[in-house]
Amino acid sequence: MSSARQQNSPPARLDWPALGWAYLFFWYFSGIQHVLLQLAGATIFAGIRQATIVSTLWLIPLFRHPDIVDLI
């Protein structure tokens, strides 16, 4: 049985700039519509806050498996 990573290799380091771009990517698809709705006066700040929290939750798999950050 072979493994993609060798047994003695150090764990993958987290690429912080890539993680920031991943957060921006996730936030764009969940938060931009709330920003536009707030600028139009159709809603309050709660939508932007919820979009920010949900975008942060999307980062949990990236923290647990830092090798997939390079794929995004």
TrEMBL record:
<protein>
    <submittedName>
        <fullName>Uncharacterized protein</fullName>
    </submittedName>
</protein>
